[in-house]
C-alpha cells in the first residue's frame, strides 16, 4: 500500500511554528504581566500625583504662611516705622509750637512792659496835672501857704551880704509882713513888691546869690525830679 496521499485528498494544514506550542499560556501570562505592569504604573502614577498634590499643598501652605508672616512683619514694621515717624513728627510739631509760644510770650511780655511804661507815663502826667491844679487852687483858697516857702528861702541864704532883697507879689507881701515881719526886719531883708509875680512864691537875692522860689520854678523842679517837663502856666 502506497504511503503517498494524492493531492486532491490532501486536507488543509496548519503551518507549524515554534510559537504554536504553549502560545495561549504565554499570551495569558503576557496579558497578566501587562495588566500588572499597567496597574503598577497607574498606582505609581497616582502615588506620584498624590506626592505632587501634597507638595503643592505644602508649597501653598508655606506660601500662605510666608505671606501671612511677611504681612504681619510688614504691618509690625510699618506700624513701628509709623509710630517712630509719628513720634518724631509730634516732637517736631511740639517744639515748633513751643518756640511759637515762647515768641508770643516774649512779644507779649515786651508789649506789656511797653504798655506799662506808657500807662505809667500817662499816669504821671495826669498826676502832675492834678497836683498842679490842686496847688493852684490851694494857693487861691489858702494864700498863707506862701509863708513856709518864704521862711525856707530866707533861711537858705545868709544875710551878711547886703542888700538882701525879698521879691513878693503885693498881696503876699501883706501876709508875710503879718506873719514874718519881725523876723525879716531883724535879719535885714527888704521886701520888694513885684506885680509880675504869681502868688504863692518868692525870689530872694543877695549881692552874690539868688534863690528862685516862685511857683512856676518850684513846679518845674518837681516835674524834672520825676523826669517830666511840665509848665506851670499850662492848665
Automatic annotation (TrEMBL):
<comment type="function">
    <text>Needed for flagellar regrowth and assembly.</text>
</comment>
<protein>
    <recommendedName>
        <fullName>Flagellar assembly protein FliH</fullName>
    </recommendedName>
</protein>
<dbReference type="InterPro" id="IPR051472">
    <property type="entry name" value="T3SS_Stator/FliH"/>
</dbReference>
<dbReference type="GO" id="GO:0009288">
    <property type="term" value="C:bacterial-type flagellum"/>
</dbReference>
<dbReference type="InterPro" id="IPR000563">
    <property type="entry name" value="Flag_FliH"/>
</dbReference>
<dbReference type="GO" id="GO:0044781">
    <property type="term" value="P:bacterial-type flagellum organization"/>
</dbReference>
<keyword id="KW-0653">Protein transport</keyword>
<dbReference type="GO" id="GO:0003774">
    <property type="term" value="F:cytoskeletal motor activity"/>
</dbReference>
<keyword id="KW-1006">Bacterial flagellum protein export</keyword>
<keyword id="KW-0963">Cytoplasm</keyword>
<keyword id="KW-1005">Bacterial flagellum biogenesis</keyword>
<keyword id="KW-0813">Transport</keyword>
<comment type="similarity">
    <text>Belongs to the FliH family.</text>
</comment>
<dbReference type="GO" id="GO:0005829">
    <property type="term" value="C:cytosol"/>
</dbReference>
<keyword id="KW-0969">Cilium</keyword>
<keyword id="KW-0282">Flagellum</keyword>
<dbReference type="InterPro" id="IPR018035">
    <property type="entry name" value="Flagellar_FliH/T3SS_HrpE"/>
</dbReference>
<dbReference type="GO" id="GO:0071973">
    <property type="term" value="P:bacterial-type flagellum-dependent cell motility"/>
</dbReference>
<dbReference type="GO" id="GO:0015031">
    <property type="term" value="P:protein transport"/>
</dbReference>
<dbReference type="Pfam" id="PF02108">
    <property type="entry name" value="FliH"/>
</dbReference>
<keyword id="KW-0966">Cell projection</keyword>
<feature type="domain" description="Flagellar assembly protein FliH/Type III secretion system HrpE">
    <location>
        <begin position="96"/>
        <end position="222"/>
    </location>
</feature>
